[in-house]
Design goal:
Length: about 375
C-alpha cells in the first residue's frame, strides 16, 4: 500500500509527542512492507510582514496545498494520512486531497475546537469554545499567547467549518475515547471517528522495583508538575524531572532538595531513564489525550501514577498497572507515591503494566490498527466510486 503522511512538524522536534508518533508510524509501516512518503514541513517564529503572511497561511495554505497536489499526482497514494495541520499546512490541504485519494486524519488533541488544543486556560479546564465559534479564544489570546495568531487560527476554523472542509475526511482516528467524545461534542460526525490508541516500541524491561520516580515531558502549566513539587515536600524519595518549558525556572526555585532536574533527552536516553524508574508520573491538569509516556513506561515494565482526567483512565488501570489520583491535589499524590515505595507493589504493578503493553500497545497491535483503518477507507472509497 502507498501511504502519504502529512504533518505540520512542531519546532520542539523529538520532544514533541506528535512528532514522535508520526516518525514511529512511518517507520512501522515501512518495516511492514508499505511504500511510505512523509511531508512534514516546519516554520520558525514569524515577525513583521511575515507575521501577516503566516496568518494567511494558517487560514488557507496555498503553497502547502499546491505541494500536496503535486505529491498526490506523483506518488499516487492509496491513502493520505494527515496529522497536525497548523501552522504549516492548514485545512486547505484536506480540500486538495478530497476526491483524489482516501483521507485519514489523526485527532491527537482538540485543536479543531480549542485554539491551543488542550482545553486549558489560566491553569483551569476551559471548554468555552467547544461546539461554538472560537471567539473567546481570540479574546484571551489562547493560541501562542497572541491575539493576532489566535484570530488567524479561529478564522481558519470558522471558514473551513462553513465550507465543510472537515467533512472531506473519510475517517478520523482519535487517540482515546475521551478525545473521540470531545470531538463529537465539538461537531464532528461520530460515525467517522474511531479510537486508535498509540503504540510504542519495546526495549529493556526493568529489573527490580526501580530507584526513583520520574516525570518526563514539557514543563508547562497544563502538565501539573507544580503538584509534584508540593507533594515532594513530604515525600522521602528521589524525584527526577526531565524536560524543559516555560515553568522550568520557577519549578527549580521551589523544589525541595530531593528533586533533580535535567534537560530534555533524546528518546533512547528517555528509555534508559524509564528502565530504572519506580513509576512514571503524569500529573496533568488538562484533558490529557492519551498519555503516550504511560505506554512507554509500560513497555519497560514500569507502572504509572496519573491524574484522573482526560484519556488517562483509559490506559491506567487503577490499582493494577498504576494509580489514578485527583487532579492538582498534592496530598493525594504524596499518598499515592508512598504506596509505590513498597517494592512488592512496584514490581506487581510493573508486571501488569508490561503485560498490558504486550496485549494492547505493542508495534504488532499498532500495525494491525493502522492497516485496518486504511483498508476500511480504501474499501469504502472503492465501493462508493464503483
Amino acid at each position: 500500500m502507498r501511504i502519504l503522511i502529512l504533518h505540520s512538524r512542531y519546532r520542539s522536534g523529538p520532544a514533541s509527542g506528535e512528532n514522535r508518533v508520526v516518525e514511529d508510524e512511518a517507520r512501522l509501516l515501512s518495516e511492514s512492507g508499505h511504500d511510505v512518503e512523509v511531508w512534514d514541513p516546519s516554520v520558525g517564529t514569524p515577525s513583521g510582514i511575515r507575521l501577516l503572511q503566516a496568518g494567511a497561511r494558517v487560514v488557507w495554505g496555498r503553497a502547502a496545498a499546491a505541494e500536496v497536489r503535486t505529491r498526490v499526482a506523483r506518488f499516487r497514494p492509496d491513502v493520505v494520512h494527515v496529522h497536525n495541520l497548523f501552522p504549516s499546512l492548514s485545512p486547505s490541504v484536506l480540500r486538495t486531497v478530497t476526491g483524489r485519494a482516501p483521507l485519514v486524519m489523526t485527532l491527537h488533541n482538540y485543536r479543531l475546537h480549542c485554539l491551543p488544543g488542550v482545553f486549558l486556560r489560566d491553569g483551569r479546564v476551559c471548554e468555552d469554545c467547544l461546539g461554538r465559534t472560537p471567539w473567546p479564544g481570540v479574546l484571551h489570546g489562547c493560541y501562542q499567547g497572541s491575539v493576532p495568531a489566535s484570530f488567524a487560527l479561529a478564522s481558519s476554523l470558522v471558514l473551513h467549518r462553513r465550507l465543510r472542509t472537515f467533512d472531506g475526511v473519510d475517517l478520523y482516528l482519535a487517540i482515546s475515547e475521551f478525545v473521540r467524545r470531545k470531538n463529537v461534542e465539538g461537531g464532528l460526525r461520530g460515525d467517522r471517528i474511531i479510537v486508535k490508541p498509540h503504540f510504542v516500541w519495546g526495549g529493556e524491561v526493568r529489573q527490580g522495583p526501580g530507584d526513583y520516580f520520574l516525570y518526563l515531558g514539557r514543563l508547562s502549566p497544563e502538565k501539573g508538575v507544580a503538584t509534584l513539587i508540593e507533594a515532594w515536600r513530604v515525600v522521602e524519595a528521589r524525584l527526577l524531572v526531565v524536560g524543559e518549558g516555560p515553568e522550568a525556572s520557577a519549578l527549580r526555585e521551589r523544589a525541595p532538595s530531593n528533586v533533580e532536574f535535567r534537560s530534555t533527552v533524546p528518546p533512547e536516553k528517555a528509555r534508559a531513564l524509564l528502565g530504572s524508574a519506580r513509576a512514571i508520573l503524569v500529573p496533568s491538569l488538562s484533558h490529557e489525550g492519551a498519555g503516550r509516556v504511560v505506554l512507554e513506561a509500560y513497555a519497560a515494565g514500569v507502572p504509572a501514577l496519573a491524574s484522573r482526567s482526560g484519556g488517562l483512565p483509559e490506559v491506567v488501570s487503577d490499582g493494577e498497572t498504576g494509580l489514578l489520583l485527583p487532579v492538582g491535589d498534592p496530598h493525594a499524590w504524596a499518598e499515592g507515591v508512598s504506596r509505590l515505595l513498597s517494592d512488592a507493589e512496584s514490581e506487581r504493578m510493573g508486571r501488569a503494566a508490561f503485560g498490558l503493553w504486550q496485549r494492547a500497545y505493542s508495534p504488532q497491535s499498532g500495525r494491525g490498527r493502522l492497516e485496518d483503518a486504511y483498508r476500511s477507507v480504501v474499501g469504502t472509497r472503492a465501493t462508493r466510486d464503483g
